[in-house]
Recover the amino acids of this structure.
């Protein structure tokens, strides 16, 4: 999972260790190797960190650059204007990848809740969208997406947009022309069903 950010977030190993503790619990800041639960390798000058934990080895990316090399070309392939804007407006990204699971008998999906729980800790106010590279699915970051990702079936819920798509249609778009003609054709039907033959307009 990848968070698309408006600007990069400053991270160093000590800061990241506290984030991991907030997300997963445990002790990652103790200098005693025998009592701590894991450790983090990396510094603020690098775009990634390696995290060792009882759950396995993870890589945490913190890149001060767009996720795609050809951002504009990628945006041109997206119909939803909100998604397109998020792709164009992002200038940094962060992600959590599983490198080596502690339990080889578990499927990768079994680690999804851990990855999401940690990634959410990076979702600051400059977060624009969240991307699942495996499927190409993208969603605008908001409270609904945040809550959906934390639920047991978060992956399937994530695949459903939380809001209707916003699309650009020209006046001569065939779908728009057909919808307009259908609305005009059925206007008398709508009018006849309204009280007194006059459509009722509801306002807040």
């Amino acid at each position: 999972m990848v968070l698309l950010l408006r600007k990069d977030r400053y991270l160093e190993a000590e800061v990241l260790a506290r984030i991991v503790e907030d997300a997963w619990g445990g002790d990652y800041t103790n200098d005693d190797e025998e009592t701590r639960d894991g450790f983090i390798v990396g510094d603020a000058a690098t775009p990634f960190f390696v995290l060792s934990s009882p759950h396995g080895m993870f890589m945490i990316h913190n890149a001060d650059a767009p996720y795609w090399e050809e951002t504009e070309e990628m945006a041109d392939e997206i119909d939803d204007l909100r998604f397109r804007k998020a792709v164009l407006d992002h200038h940094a990204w962060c992600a959590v990848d599983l490198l080596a699971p502690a339990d080889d008998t578990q499927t990768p999906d079994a680690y999804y809740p851990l990855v999401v729980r940690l990634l959410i800790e990076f979702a600051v106010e400059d977060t624009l969208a969240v991307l699942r590279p495996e499927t190409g699915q993208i969603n605008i970051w908001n409270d609904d997406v945040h809550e959906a990702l934390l639920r047991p079936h978060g992956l399937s819920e994530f695949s459903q947009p939380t809001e209707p798509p916003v699309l650009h249609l020209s006046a001569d778009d065939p779908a728009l022309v057909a919808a307009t003609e259908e609305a005009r054709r059925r206007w008398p039907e709508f009018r006849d069903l309204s009280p007194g033959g006059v459509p009722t307009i509801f306002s807040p």
